[in-house]
Amino acid sequence: MKEKALPTATVSRMGDRLDWNLLRTFLVIAEERSISGAAIKLHLTQSAVSQALRRLEAQLDRRLIERHHAKFAITQAGEEVRQAAQAIHGSVSQLLSDVAQAEEQTVGRVHLLVASRIHSAVYDDFWVRFHRAHPRIEVQLDVLPSSEIVNVLLQRAATAGIALCRQIPKRLDHKLFLQQRYALFCGKNHPLFGRADIRMEDLLHENFVSFASDALGDSLSPLTIFRDQRGFSGSIVATSSQHDEVKRLLVAGFGIGCLPEHSVEADLAEGRLWRLPPGEGVCAADLHLLWHRDAHRSPAEDLFITALRDHIDSYSLPQRLLAHLP
Prior knowledge:
Number of helices: 11
Number of strands: 11
Radius of gyration: 36 Å
Helix content: 40-55%
CATH topology of the largest domain: D-Maltodextrin-Binding Protein, domain 2
Largest sheet: 7 strands, mixed
CATH class of the largest domain: Alpha Beta
Structural class: alpha/beta
Order of helices and strands: HHHHEEHEHEHEEEHEHEHEEH
Strand content: 15-25%
């Protein structure tokens, strides 16, 4: 005899109070095809399993199992419930797996100090990956001269820094990030632009555009030593602590000056800058990732330093200078 369908309102009320534990118990009963077998698998008494079945049948107002002596049969309604319970069990299992595998998102703030414009596709890629992995970490990124970055880190007033540093203070931990080579350039508005016959002697009386840190004892002092050793007599007519501003003044024709070779490849190709002697360049300058070893750091700050160090380690030194990743 076909069972009468329940009114929609009744079904809705039943759904609101339906107990998943009863469905799970019934699913095991159906799989074991036995009350006693289900009790063993669930580590319950047979009485508890039988009571759970009766409660579920009462909530659904349907008989789910027919039992006559040794005969055990699932009713049509019971088969519908078994299939639904199986689907729900799969969804619950997937939910628990997803929750178990999901990392709790770290919340916090990172304050990074960087020297004037870092030219590295590896560095750019790090920020893409870091933000995707930790979207709730707030980042403050300030550009400062390298000497100031070191001083701020020594005062434990920032998370980390990326700076030119010839002598690293003992209290700072560090990791070599970029090995840059500086060379001499002039801009398209300079009289030497485009000349292929330039000798070092032709440069000795030229005026210079310089980085503000280009002084003895500072992060770029090898540039000063180079000028003194080669006998340059021109004046420093313009200075800036910012890479792009030094380049701007060079393009404007103020004088000649030094820039990292890898940072101006596009400017050379597009005719804004011209490479000058010597062919081997002027000097090398290393950019380091720096952090205070004894500073108290938040979980977000520790995570950031570890993530950046690991990202750097995954690339060789030449790869870190590339403008575009392969």
